Amino acid sequence: MSNAAAPAPQASDRADNPVHVAIIMDGNGRWAAARSLPRAEGHRRGVEALRRVVRAASELGILYLTIFSFSSENWSRPATEIGDLFGLLRRFIRNDLATLHRDGVRVRVIGERTGLEADICALLNEAEELTKANTKLTLVVAFNYGSRQEIAKAAQRLALEVAEGKREASSIDADVLGRYLDTPDIPDPDLIIRTSGEQRLSNFLMWQAAYSELVFVPIHWPDFDKAALEGAIAEYARRERRFGGLVAKTGS
Ligand code: IPE
Ligand code: IPE
Ligand code: MG
Known about the structure:
Blueprint: H1 11-16, E1 20-24, H2 28-33, H3 39-59, E2 64-71, H4 79-102, E3 105-110, H5 118-131, E4 137-145, H6 147-163, H7 174-179, E5 191-194, E6 213-216, H8 226-238
Parallel strand pairs: 1-2, 1-5, 2-4, 3-4, 5-6
């Protein structure tokens, strides 16, 4: 071929592109309060932002998108708000599952299922089952999820195996424990974005985030869009990931 002007894709293009982006979708309530609207309206608009961002992630070639949609600690909110949030999840799956499937999205759900209402469990199972062979984008929905609870559950399962004589305690290392979490088939997030300005993890993917780049954006979640996602990815691309080692030489 010719040495035409268009540059060939560089290996670094891939390295700058996160494989797995995880988002703490925060600020629905503040978005609504700023407009004198009920918090439920903020959550409803948050679902619209989610639709936009799933599409954008797909267009940007992201392979895994994890969204924090309900935390183990969100049970401390008023029952009416919990009802609103569960209603939106139900509606999101009922209305959007066919489109997600058509667009090649595989849905995976992490978090605690026991204790959830049967119809919610059935919807989550249906979404996972219908889309399990899709490969364009894996949408990981963290629902009723808490990182401490996830790690404690993994420890409990391992302890049981030791108690039953199926495993030596000395065999338990970080790799083994990692395989007992909810995410054995999901790479660790490269980039974690939190909207609305708070700078904390709030019990989200704490094990998996060991070497994630964290980007905090001031935008409330209902206003988040493709441009904001691209902005966070650009910030990620400027970071220098070292994983405890030394910086790789560039150029050679
Ligand atoms: C995020 O928005 C949605 C969930 C946590 C479920 P919030 O409801 O936390 O909104 P703020 O933080 O009160 O603004
Ligand atoms: C984290 O947001 C949980 C979700 C986005 C689902 P919160 O709004 O619950 O977190 P805190 O309470 O501000 O830490
Ligand atoms: Mg919040």
